[in-house]
Amino acid sequence: MMTVCIVIGVTCRLHSESSPVTMSLMFDLLPAHLEWYYGGPLLGLLIVGLFVLANQPLGARGAYVQSSGLIRRRGGVVTWRVWYFVGMFLGGVLVTQVLRDRAEIRSGYGSLRDVFPLVVVIPMVFAGASLLGYGAAMAGGCTSGHGMCGTAQRSPASVAATATFMATAIATTLVLRLLTGGDL
Predict the structure, then answer these.
(1) pTM to 2 decimal places
(2) Which has more confidence, 92 or 167?
């Protein structure tokens, strides 16, 4: 029996169910990473287009807040932001859980686990996620919202927030490299 999949508008036939299913065609269509000179302008056009069409910024925190509002049955929920949030979640699940054994995609915290035991990694990730959520709430937006949309609007608060994000990321990377002897 043959299985058919739809990948970005292209229909492809996969191997039979008795052999391992491969997604090689999909990975041939998608590069390992998108070059900055393609991704940057495309993202810029997306942000400008979103402002022109909906007069709203693109940001993960906004998508989270709207999804939370839908779950709590609050009024004024912007539906496309809920789908944006669902898409981020499902995309992560697809890559890390469904495709992980079928392609060489780095999933999870492998580099961190190479340096620290699991009992240390779990609290580190939890603490980092908690700090990220708290920081996004205190800053009135996330890195994508401030860094891309806020700076595009020439918001002084977003420029300051983005500078803070970048300085913190550079300092954290330096500290981790010093602590791990360059292994991380």
Answers:
(1) 0.57
(2) 167
